[in-house]
Structure formats: structure tokens, C-alpha cells
Write a sequence for this structure.
């Protein structure tokens, strides 16, 4: 909205094209469309970076109508765009502005910033990077930061004076959003200090690369930067295992038997998992997670070799609930121990037991299924 207001103030109402790389967060095109912009997707190369040739071609094609580039940095592919400054300059040279998605700010704090790379506006997610609760599947508080060029167009409010001198209309019913949540981020930053928040960024990147180093001989890592490193996250490619009947969802469900909620599944690339450890996990937890995935790879190999049934195995039947494992009628060809306790650390206490076994996710997404007893059963003995 601030970008749109900026262009309208300059009588550039015709600028309505938002260029968005395929590596950007999916919320970006949604935001652009809600503001009445037209989205044009920019391709990425084999290393996960923005395809500069494709970007230049589309900038040339839409130069007169270019409103902005919306880019996630580092990208959801888990790479720092090596040409990020050149990308921003190219957009500016053609009359557009640059929006940087701050979802991955936890790989930037203390090392770089949106201003350094040339971004004009950044949506700063306070969850993950700055410690607030995630909040219903999205940021509980998501302020935007702008440069001087866009400051006059910050959103206003009909009842309380907020925003810039040429403020756009309100985007939140409360003038400062969920302002009380800001205290959490403020306290987090004050307690850590400049050195602490910088170290948190370094640990997030270190943790991701540690996992990458442990897993890359067993699984293909889809993208890495110019130096063969991940940023703060990486994409593990599981598509090749479809040939033996194992899907990315099977791996995600099996991780529950090892005590882990699966990482992001099939985003930004279908058939993959995106692993983002952040700075908060210690080495012991990282090792347990890596051990789980390495053991799962052995299980996949057992399916591939015919040692396990390709249609009924520890992966396709996962997760295994306590009810299933303790049931007298054990119907699987593998042992109960292999199902529920595949690695020694699971026997040391604190075993996580999924409450529900495999469900038809697609069916469940499309059909509301109420598990509560009918209201009549509660009211049967009431007047």
C-alpha cells in the first residue's frame, strides 16, 4: 500500500506490475493482488538464485508499468542472493521500488540489513527472529520499516494520529496493531544486546549448515550458495524416493515416530522438506534430528531393496500411536520396536506418542469432520 501510494502521489497510477521471484514467500503475490497490482513471476536458476537474465527481460518488458520487486532475502531456497544489490539497483533504475520480505531476518540481524542491500520497505516479522508467539499460523505482530522515500505514506488511522504526512488508510483496526506484543521483542533485544542478536544470527546459519553437512551424503540438498553453503535453512529433496513408493509426506509422518514435528513440507518446492533450525536448538537436539533423518534414509533403502514391503512399511504406516503398538492384533511385518523405538534415545524417556495415526489429509482439508458427540447426548438428562 505504501508503494502504491508513492506511485500515485507521483501521478504514476499506471505502475501496477509487481515482479516476484519464484523463491519468494507465497504471501507476497497475495499482498500485491490485494492492492490491485498484477503479479509477474521471475524465474530462478539451478542454484536457487534469481535468474538475472529473466529478471532483466521482464524489467525491460514492464519498465513503464513497474511498481515494485517483492523479494525474500535470504530466499526460501536457503541462499543469500549474491546479486542482491544489483537486483535492487536494476529495479530503481527503472522507476520501481523494492520490498524485502523480512521472514528470514533471523539470518540478517547484526550482519546486514534491508537498507544495506537497497530495499525501500521491509515487512519485519517479529515471530521467529524476535521471539514473539507465532499466532494462528501467521505473525502476531508484523510492522513494516521504510526508508525516507516512503515514510510519508505509512498507514494512518481515522481516530489516532499515526503514519506519515500523506498517510494511506488504516490497515489495522488498532492504531499500533497488537502493541503489547512489542514488549517481548523489546525485552529480547535489550537482554541480548548488539553482540547477542548478532550471535543469534550466526548460530542460526551455523546450525543450518551443520545439518546440511550431516545430511548431504544421504539426501540431495536442492540449493546452496556460491560457496556451497546454506543460509539459515535448506531444502532436502525427497522426490527421487517416489520411484520406490515413498513420498515426502511419508518421511514427514515417520519423523513423528522419532519425536519430531516435521519441517515445512512441499514448500517452496513440492516433494521436499525445508529445514530451518533457527538459533535455539543445541547440538544434542540437532544431532538427534539428523540421526532420525539418517535412520529414515536406511528405512527407505530397506524398502528399495525389498527388505520391507513397498506398500506397508514403517514409512507408509507412520505415525504409530501407542494404541496401535500395544494392540494385541499386530498386523505389520516389522516389529513393534522398529515402529515405535527405532533409535536408542527414544527409550530413555520422554517418548512422544502421536495421538492420531495416518489420516487422509486431502480429504480432511475438504471435509469438516466433527469428533464431538452429538449435542443431544449432552442434553438427554436436561429439562
Amino acid at each position: 500500500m505504501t508503494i502504491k501510494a508513492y506511485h500515485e502521489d507521483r501521478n504514476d497510477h499506471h505502475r501496477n506490475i509487481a515482479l516476484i521471484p519464484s523463491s519468494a514467500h507465497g504471501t507476497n503475490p497475495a499482498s500485491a493482488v490485494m492492492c490491485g497490482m498484477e503479479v509477474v513471476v521471475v524465474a530462478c536458476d539451478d542454484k536457487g538464485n534469481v535468474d538475472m537474465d529473466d529478471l532483466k527481460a521482464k524489467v525491460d518488458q514492464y519498465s513503464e508499468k513497474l511498481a515494485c520487486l517483492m523479494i525474500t532475502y535470504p530466499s526460501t531456497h536457503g541462499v543469500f542472493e549474491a546479486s542482491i544489490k544489483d537486483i535492487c539497483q536494476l529495479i530503481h533504475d527503472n522507476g520501481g521500488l523494492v520490498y524485502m520480505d523480512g521472514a528470514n531476518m533471523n539470518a540478517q540481524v547484526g550482519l546486514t540489513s534491508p537498507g544495506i542491500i537497497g530495499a525501500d520497505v521491509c515487512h519485519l516479522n517479529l515471530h521467529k527472529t524476535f521471539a514473539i508467539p507465532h499466532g494462528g499460523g501467521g505473525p502476531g505482530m508484523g510492522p513494516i520499516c521504510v526508508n525516507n522515500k516512503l515514510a510519508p505514506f505509512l498507514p494512518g488511522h481515522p481516530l489516532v494520529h499515526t503514519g506519515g504526512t500523506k498517510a494511506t488508510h488504516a490497515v489495522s483496526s488498532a492504531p499500533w496493531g497488537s502493541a503489547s506484543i512489542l514488549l517481548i521483542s523489546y525485552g529480547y533485544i535489550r537482554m541480548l544486546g548488539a553482540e547477542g542478536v548478532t550471535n543469534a544470527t550466526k548460530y542460526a546459519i551455523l546450525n543450518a549448515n551443520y545439518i546440511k553437512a550431516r545430511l548431504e551424503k544421504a539426501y540431495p540438498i536442492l540449493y546452496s550458495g556460491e560457496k556451497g553453503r546454506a543460509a539459515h535453512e535448506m531444502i532436502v529433496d525427497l522426490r527421487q524416493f517416489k520411484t520406490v513408493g515413498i513420498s515426502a509426506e511419508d518421511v514427514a509422518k515417520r519423523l513423528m515416530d522419532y519425536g519430531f514435528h516435521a519441517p515445512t513440507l512441499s514448500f517452496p518446492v513440492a516433494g521436499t522438506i525445508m529445514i530451518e533450525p533457527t538459533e535455539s536448538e543445541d547440538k544434542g537436539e540437532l544431532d538427534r534430528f539428523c540421526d532420525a533423518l539418517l535412520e529414515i534414509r536406511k528405512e527407505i533403502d530397506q524398502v528399495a531393496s525389498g527388505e520391507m514391503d513397498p506398500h506397508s512399511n514403517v514409512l507408509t504406516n507412520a505415525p504409530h500411536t501407542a494404541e496401535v503398538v500395544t494392540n494385541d492384533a499386530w498386523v505389520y511385518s516389522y516389529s513393534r520396536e522398529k515402529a515405535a523405538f527405532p533409535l536408542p534415545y527414544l527409550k530413555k524417556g520422554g517418548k512422544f506418542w502421536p495421538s492420531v495415526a495416518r489420516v487422509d489429509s486431502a480429504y480432511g482439508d475438504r471435509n469438516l469432520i466433527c469428533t464431538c458427540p452429538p449435542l443431544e447426548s449432552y442434553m438427554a438428562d436436561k429439562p
Remarks:
- The mean pLDDT is 92.
- The first helix runs from residue 2 to 9.
- The chain has twelve helices and nine strands.
